[in-house]
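debug: dumping io for the single-chain case to check the tokenizer round-trip. Nothing else runs in this session.
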Amino acid sequence: EGLGRDPRLQTISATSPGVIYQDLLILGSLVSEDLPAPPGDIRAYDTRSGKIRWTFHTLPHPGEPGYETWPKDAWKYSGAANCWTGMSVDEKRGLVFVPTGSAAFDFYGANRLGDDLYANCLIALKAQTGERVWDFQTVRHDVWDRDLVAPPSLVTVRRSGRLVDAVAQTTKGGFVFVFDRETGKPLFPVEYRKVPPSDVNGEVLAGTQPFPLKPPPYARQVFTEDMVTDRTPEAHAAVLERLRKLRNRGQFTPPSLLGTVIFPGYDGGGEWGGPAFDPETGLLYVNANEMAWVLRLVERPKFVGRAGGRDLYLRNCASCHRPDRRGSPPEFPSLVRIADKYGVSEIATIIREGGGRMPRFAQLGSLAIEALTEYLATGKDTGPVAVNDNPRPYALKYTMDGYNKLLDPEGYPAVKPPWGTLNAINLDTGEFAWKIPLGEFPELADKGIVNTGSENYGGPLVTAGGLLFIAATDYDRKFRAFDKQTGKLLWETTLPAAGNATPATYEVDGRQFVVIAAGGGKWGAPSGGAYVAFAIPP
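debug: decoded output
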């Protein structure tokens, strides 16, 4: 209800539970990152009746602020600019703070020329009515998949001898933006810097992007040659040769047909676990990834009304599963020999209805789905069939060739460590209190290569008793406790599976406990299904 599009032809779900304000459930959505995709509108539902009480259009309609930042009538055919992560509510002020992601398609924006408000924005809305109070766009006309992935943190900072209630937003790019909650005024200066233009046909990028001058980035943002891995001479030489063939001028280097370095990568920098804030110390704790990825644009097959199975695959599936169908396992599985796992009818059903993070493709029509199914099952193209694919207004010339990490020949990160970090940032001063590597590769640690950091997913928990808990690390499956003031490791244990989650704490009979979900399964790590709880010593 209230989608504004035929729901049978769209993919929409909820990956975060929303927030409650009085008698309202305020909810975002997860939608497709390619077109067609519905708008990522924010909706408030009556908790008693389920009726929609208000809607905020993240793709503005005529007469609404921000409409001029899109092509005419883009709200009718463009999509996304959605809040798939969490929101935060200031109940006292009656404000809900909404972070949004990029507009669709993620990596080529010829269909959405302009700054694309309210994509990549932190938006303050009146929680009772959905009226916009202020917004700040962290990336203009995003073509790098720089979604705001973490819920904003409600913090209190000291300015000129007085306390200011603020909201802090971490980003994939490694920035922290800090704003006055009521006015949206940045509490640290933000500088708009010129960034390179695109040379891809049809693309027009924003001329400048915002850079907060404080705090400093908590992740490296330019992959220079002196940062190439030196794990082995062979790894160094292989990565250096590849790096020199790619475009690499910082995190706003335009996507290209040659290949562009994305650093930090699609998974940050900051990730969906978000930060923790300690009102006692004024420190914001945020974990980060420091992995490089490669974005390469490729032409989509051109067809109007008719297409064969291979062209249908290249147009609709290759951006995730690669043109060669080998994918980027395990996040985007290989489709080579997919018929060994699924029957023909099952493949067709998955294409039609979607599954997991895969969107549905019912809009292609039955004949096209049959042709695509045949191609996936047998590798054979049966020839052109009718396709229910309107070539305008969102048929795009380019897609991307998959989600590809920049790795050395043995599969380790192409950049020198740290590959993951834990950071403590003083929001009163905008300076680091401390910064340490987070995580290890056990097989490298056995060889004496320690404190490398590793990819990590899931946030920290800070306690009044002086502790900072975090799991998050993929490969070593550790759950750790640090001194929140110094970053000194106080305790660690190995979980049955990686704790790719944010811990929670609770009290029973006067005793405090901390619990972590050990689900694992990220990037090929073993999966699990346990909640593991620990008592905190008095």
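debug: round-trip ok. Residues 301-395 form a domain with the Cytochrome Bc1 Complex; Chain D, domain 2 fold (CATH 1.10.760.10).
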